[in-house]
Amino acid sequence: MSHSLRVVFAGTPEFASAALAAIHGAGFAVPLVLTQPDRPAGRGMKLQASPVKRYAVEHGIAVAQPPSLRRAGKYPAEAAAAIEQLRATPHDVMVVAAYGLILPQEVLDIATHGCINIHASLLPRWRGAAPIHRAIEAGDAETGITLMQMDAGLDTGAMISEIRTPISADDTTATLHDRLAQAGAKLIVEALVELERSGKLASTPQPADGVTYAEKIGKHEAALDWRRPAAVLARQVRAFDPFPGGVATLEDGTAIKIWAAAAQDSTNNAAPGTITGVSPEGVVVACGEGALRLTQLQKPGGKRLPAREFLAGFGLAAGQRFHIPDAN
């Protein structure tokens, strides 16, 4: 099936490529894709194209990769050229998903129907860079996707539609990301079909209360602070899979990555960070409240392993202690 609505798409990671594939697969014309410049990645730090660029190239869609779209920024010439290219590319609407560049008002104004953003939270909760991680970390019962008419603020635009999903007790950022990417893809295609049919999309302003910001995840957050409650640390481990992982550092400086853990009650009065039990079922560590059972671990240079296999190649014993990170 083909559609007359022309869609310029802007996005970068896997989350965005799922939406681009759905839009293109539904038969909408995509005359241009914007994505971030190729970045060095992997062991050899070779330049790698974003998932969105890879999809576009495989399907013969034109790609632009400006380092910025702000004329007043560090790359005024590249920004001006990209804005000219957008103006010269006839399109009806721009769809933006995890693009990673700020869109100035003049870019938002180019398409007849403006820019629709696919945002991975139930706005106004978790505006900003890392909504999936922060929803898990905070223990939210549910999250979802909100389609939003973009304005110049940070995720402040009027809401077009949303789709909700519960956050289960074993969801990680990886599993929730994949579910939300599919939900976002479905929601944006429905919205584009409706926009083509009726020529407009109804939207409602975001409520003023309940606004929270999802700060970008920093590597420095990986260190597990054993003074915190075990339930909080268990959520942190799930939120930080696949990046940056939870990190437990032994007193000798060996940093062990923690990929799965469960909170449990503790009758032990050991100091936070003390290993109180080691068995094939997991390594139990005393916390500020309760204890954390580490069930999937990774030694430096090793692979992620279930506790049983990890312990076969790395000795840990009750009484050993993990370092408490400096309070930042």
Would you spell out the secondary-structure blueprint of this structure?
Layout: E1 7-11, H1 14-25, E2 33-34, E3 39-41, E4 46-48, H2 51-58, E5 63-64, H3 76-87, E6 93-97, H4 105-108, E7 115-119, E8 127-128, H5 131-137, E9 142-149, E10 159-166, H6 173-198, E11 213-214, H7 230-239, E12 246-249, E13 255-264, E14 275-279, E15 282-286, E16 291-298, E17 305-306, H8 307-313
Parallel strand pairs: 1-2, 1-6, 2-5, 6-7, 8-11
Antiparallel strand pairs: 3-4, 7-9, 9-10, 12-13, 13-16, 14-15, 15-16, 16-17
Helix pairs in contact: 1-2, 1-6, 5-7
In words, what does this structure look like?
26% of the residues lie in helices and 24% in strands. The chain is an alpha/beta fold. The protein has 2 domains: 7-214, 3-Layer(aba) Sandwich (Rossmann fold); 220-313, Methionyl-tRNA Fmet Formyltransferase, Chain A, domain 2. A 7-stranded mixed beta sheet has the order 5-2-1-6-7-9-10. The longest helix has 26 residues, at 173-198. It is elongated and about 65 Å long. The model has no long low-confidence stretch (mean pLDDT 95).
